[in-house]
Write a structure and sequence with these properties.
Distance between the termini: 121 Å
Helix content: 40-55%
CATH topology of the largest domain: D-Maltodextrin-Binding Protein, domain 2
Number of domains: 2
Structural class: alpha/beta
Shape: globular
Order of helices and strands: HEHHEHEHEHEEEEHHEHEHEEEHHEH
Radius of gyration: 29 Å
Number of strands: 14
Strand content: 5-15%
Amino acid sequence: MASKGAINSSRERMQAMSIMIRKLLGFTLLFWLAAAYVFVGAANAQTSRDAEWKKTVEAAKKEGQVTIYTESGQNTLLIDSMAFQKRFPEIKVIIAFGNSFPRILTERRAGKYLADIALSGGTSLWQMYSAGILDPVRDAFILPEVTDESKWLDKRHHYIDAERKYIFVAVGNPDSGNFYYNTKLINPKDFHSMWDFLRPELKGKISARDVRTPGPGRVTIRFYYYIPELGSTFIYRLFSEMDVALFRDQRQGHDWLATGKYPICVFCNQSTIETVKLQGLPVEKFGSMKEGVGLSSGGGNVALVNRAPHPNAAKVFINWYLSREGQIAVQAVEGGFSNSRRMDVPRDMIPADRRLEAGVNYVDVDTSERMSMEPMLKVFNAAIAEAEKRRKK
């Protein structure tokens, strides 16, 4: 016969097990309730976004148009390609091509508020941001595939402004230094470093676009300035020691390069160089040097202009532009010259040496702390002054 102590011990074990089972059941119930809450919350959020998108599209159709200011020929081609218009035929796209910032200022002084979206280079949008004429573009994001940052380079959205909400950077083009050469006169295998362009035998054989005026090269010179292995020393020595011939007319620089008058060109326009190549002329771009690769956005930045006359149509365009469909259209229409920072888009149309790759440590020059041209232009001007002084001796 079991002792009294044994019976009590057995009862205590059964009670303890019963308590543990009840706790386990309670935790299980709480887990499934929490899971159901999250699921229902996610479903409600999705339903809410769907409703917001539908409402925005319907309101945009009633507005009937969206006005986009751009300075980029590629952006004009994108919009003219009718990719957006086919998707939303009820929303007419109006393009204002030209220098956007002064144009908007002039219009506003006359009491006119015509622009909805600015789709342009970083410098122009930075001026708009500094003048306080932008609304947060981030607030326009509705589609889940746009709000999902994991789809983009480094699994995050990229902005020029430090607040990370006004100027969205959609494009990321690798910049290997923007040096071009005449294939009949220069052997690219002799160049492994940017510093190789300062060899004495190249003195008087280099031309460069004058970056004191807007245009190609202003992004690249920022790359030179901010990469540790180059910096202000490289800029100063290149333009003070090498008797660089400056040009402002792109055609002149490309003619000099193709004819061999100056067999190396700095800051030539890449798309024009490709056109010149198709004509059978002996021009080519140097590959990456050991100092690294820059990253720039070109005209692939989008911002929302405040007091926009067609706010809903602007939201629809922005969401389309940053969607996978929109970014595929960007790459297709620009003929292999633009890389979307969306990493879920195909890049077959982009030559392998120009493709944006995940995991590469790029020097991104389109950031708030690197937008100003003042530091590098100060060095550039000092170098040009020194070169003039040497020529007069």
